[in-house]
Amino acid sequence: MLKWLSVFQSALAREFGDRATIGVLATVSPDNAAAGRCVVLRELTADGRLIFTTDVRSEKVHHLETNPSAECVFWLPTLRLQFRIAGDATIDATTATRSHQWSKLSPATRFTFYGPPPGTKRESSTDRTNDTNSKNQSVQSVKSVDDSPPPSFAVLVLSPIRVESLDLTTDPHTRTQFARQDGWRPVAIHP
Ligand SMILES: Cc1cc2nc3c(=O)[nH]c(=O)nc-3n(C[C@H](O)[C@H](O)[C@H](O)COP(=O)(O)O)c2cc1C
Question: Which of 29, 36, 44, 52 to pair with 65, CA 20 to 30 A apart?
């Protein structure tokens, strides 16, 4: 297994166990503005790809259509470790992958894919109450009937090109870079 991958995987297991791993995923907009947002890391594949789920109508997907460059940053507070994983992110539209990731989502998370497009304006303050009322009924119906993902559901795959770890427990701090083009060998750099 790749060195960075085994280090990252075991650190995530120690830090989060069964709890969700949250990272900040950065993308670049078509007018070259940086954009970051929290996302749940749904899976880390054996060859080191990072799997996320998202709404295909969201801004981040729009960004990736024009520029696949992305970086996801993870902070592990107990271990005092930071990981930055940069590469190209694409949408995996294969039926098997979509179904597999969809099958792992809770009813409440599935429900979020049936609303209006993310980022669009809410018409009035009463929308929120209506959303909540209909949500309670709809979460149940999504749970019972919907075994296949709706068109809004997307699986986003980040294929790493560069990985960097920063360990704050040492003095001085330990910063290590790994690059695909260098065969992923670790290179110590000044923090
Ligand atoms: C803890 C946390 C976890 C989140 N996980 C996801 C996620 O897995 N996928 C996702 O698309 N959005 C997730 N979000 C919402 C995003 O941060 C963001 O608000 C949303 O995706 C819209 O982003 P965009 O307009 O930049 O595409 C999460 C937010 C928080 C606070």
Answer: 44
Tell me whether residue 49 is in a domain. Answer: yes
Q: What is the amino acid identity at position 189?
A: I
Distance from Cα 35 to the centre of ligand 1, integer Å: 12
* Minimal-distance CA residue to ligand 1 atom 6: 39
The token duo for 156 is: 């986003």
CATH of the domain at 99: 2.30.110.10
Helices then strands, each counted (H, E), the chain: 5, 9
Residues with CB under 6 A from ligand 1: 22, 35, 37-40, 52-55, 58-60, 118-119
Closest residue (by CA) to atom 19 of ligand 1? 37
What domain range is 77 assigned to? 3-106+152-189
Q: Please state the φ and ψ torsions of residue 41, each to the nearest 5 degrees.
A: -75, 110
Q: pTM above 0.90?
A: yes
Q: In whole angstroms, give the CA distance from residue 149 to residue 100.
A: 10
Number of domains in the chain: 1
Count Cα atoms within 13 angstroms, Cβ side, for 179: 5
- B/e letters for 12-28, b = 16+ CB within 10 Å, e = fewer, are beebeeeeebebebbbb
Lookup: tokens for 183: 């065969």
